[in-house]
Every structure is written in C-alpha cells, then in structure tokens.
Amino acid sequence: MKKLVTAAIAFVAMTVQALAAPASLDDISDYLETLQSVTADFVQFNPDGSQSNGTMYLKRPGKLRFEYNGNNSPLVMIGGGQVAVFDPLSNEPPFRFPVSQTPFAPVIGRTVDLDNTRFETFLLESGEFTILNVQDPRYAEYGYVSLVFDTEPLQLRQWVVIDGAGQQTAIALTQINTGAQIKNSIFNIRAEMRARGFEIN
Questions:
Q1: Quick one: residue 64, left, alpha or beta (phi over 0 = left, psi -120 to 50 = alpha)?
Q2: Tens-place pLDDT, residues 137-193
Q3: Domain that holds residue 98
Q4: What's the CA gap between 176 and 37, in Å, rounded?
Q5: For residue 8, is it within any domain?
C-alpha cells in the first residue's frame, strides 16, 4: 500500500510539473508566425487606474493598429517601420518613432526567431500561463514588454508594457479572430496624416 501511495504521489508530481512547464522560445516563435492577420477586442488598464477599450488589428509583417472607442480617442498605428500616435485633442502631427526601438519589433516581423535576436528575452511560468519578457538592451531606459500566453493551447492573451519609470500598462485581448481579412490601407501612417490635414515630411 505504501508503495502504491508513493507511486501515486510521484505520478501527480510529474503530471503537475508537466502541466506547469512553460512553452519554449521555439514554441512561441512558431505560434507568433501563425498570427498572420488578426483582429481582437482589447481592454487597456492604465497606470492611473483608468481603463480604455477598443479594437486591435495585426497584419504580418510589421503592421499593428489600435483603435480606441469613444469620441476624441487616440489612434496608435505601426506601419512602414514606424510607430505613430495620433492625439485628436492636439493640433500637432502624430508623435512618430522607429518600431525598431520598441520591444514589439522581434514579434511582428515576417519571421520570428526569439532564440536569435538582439533583443533580450526571458521566459517564466506562472500556473497556466507562460510569460515572455522582451527588452531592447540598446534602449533599456525605455522599459520592456511582458507577453502573457495561455500554455495549453498556446495563445496570446495579454501584454504588459513596463516603462522606464516602472509604470505598467496592460492590454488584455478578447474575441480573437485569427483569420481576419484586413486591408493594408488601415496601417498607412502617411495616408492617415493626409486625411487629418497634416503635412507630410
């Protein structure tokens, strides 16, 4: 009887360990490459405790768009190698900077190889989730991003952006559609600028 109990305990321990094992970098790389054209609803939890929501559009390679709900809401676009943040309450052109300076660069490219990237990556496991931290060592002062995945089956659920001051902005995804038909035009930053009456430089 004692042997049976010992064996049962060992089996349960092995099972829990197997269930808790995080996905590997190769697993995550392969999964992210399958996300060719995606739409999802999102809820954003801001550092001040407020919440925002909207729709995310992802199209590989290198295209991402966040449309926030409500009048006079911001718009964030990634396309043509740039990030653009449009503030409808400002008369200024969008704030723009290279996507290569963000931790999203290695995960929205044509191919994803997290084992061979100049970005620093760190995997950890938390219950049913696998968490991937990504940081650009050249711009460590900008902070990093934590991508949170369901482990079984592997699926991106949310990410948390931690800025240089340690403030956290979390975005949780729902209603994920991985077979969406998305036009390239919605990622065209210059076209969006023209539509809003800004000069192109």
A1: beta
A2: 988 888 899 999 998 889 999 999 999 899 999 999 999 999 899 999 999 999 999
A3: 22-195
A4: 11
A5: no
User: In 10 A of CB 102, how many CB atoms?
Assistant: 21
The answer as to whether 1 is a domain residue is: no
Please return the burial class of 77, using the count of CB atoms within 10 Å of its CB with bins 0-12, 13-18 and 19+. buried
Instruction: Report residue 33 as tokens.
Output: 């490459």
Instruction: Give me Rg for the CA atoms of the chain.
Output: 20
**Which H or E run contains 14?**
helix 2-20
The predicted-structure confidence for 56-81, as pLDDT tens digits, reads as follows 999 999 999 999 998 889 999 999 99
- CATH number, domain containing residue 43: 2.50.20.10
In a domain, 150, yes or no: yes
pTM for this prediction: 0.84
* 101 domain residue, yes or no: yes
DSSP string, 142-193: G-EEEEEEETTTTEEEEEEEE-TT--EEEEEEEEEETB----GGGG-HHHHH
Q: What angle do CA 118, 45, 80 make, to 5 degrees?
A: 45
> How many structural domains is the chain composed of?
1
- Positive or negative, the CA dihedral 67, 68, 70, 72 is negative
Tokens of 66: 């966040």
Instruction: Please give the Cα distance from 138 to 140 (Å, whole number).
Output: 6
